[in-house]
Amino acid sequence: MSATTEITDQNFREQLKQSPLSMLDFWAEWCGPCKILSPIVDEIAERYRNKVLIGKVDVDKYQGISTEFGIRSIPTLLFFKGEKLVDKHIGAISKSALVQKIDEHLKNT
Questions:
Q1: Beta-bridge partner residues of 57
Q2: What is the pLDDT of residue 3?
Q3: pLDDT (mean) for 41-68
Q4: From CA 72, how far away is CA 91, in angstroms rounded?
Q5: End-to-end CA distance of the chain
Q6: Pairing state between β 76-81 and 22-27
């Protein structure tokens, strides 16, 4: 079972309330850079299991969330503390840079 959580238009707010820090990966099946980022996100989800909610939002299926946050390019990573958006990264990112970003947010949680 994957450590990532599928985020939908329906469960979005409830999921964010479950964790002090959440990272949502906005992606699509047809997106090349998303396919490169996906295994990194999966590894991060495993590493931060029970500490950070790592969610994936399929922009083709769940356009409500994508529209709400103005997602125009994918992959896009959004970071939330509770329901408050605190950071955004557009495009691919290395595992080490992502770990550093999450650790920084965790220090300030």
A1: 26
A2: 78
A3: 95
A4: 11
A5: 27
A6: antiparallel
State both tokens at 15. 């999921």
Residues noted as catalytic: 31, 34
Q: Band the pLDDT of 1: cuts 50, 70, 90.
A: very low
What single letter denotes the amino acid at residue 99?
V
Q: Find, among 30, 59, 43, 33, the residue nearest to 98 by Cα.
A: 43
The residue type at 105: H
Q: What SS3 class is residue 25? A: strand
3-state DSSP call for residue 90?
Answer: strand
| pLDDT of amino acid 2 | 62
d(CA 44, CA 54): 8
Residue in the block written with tokens 């590894």: 43
> Hey, what amino acid is at 75?
P
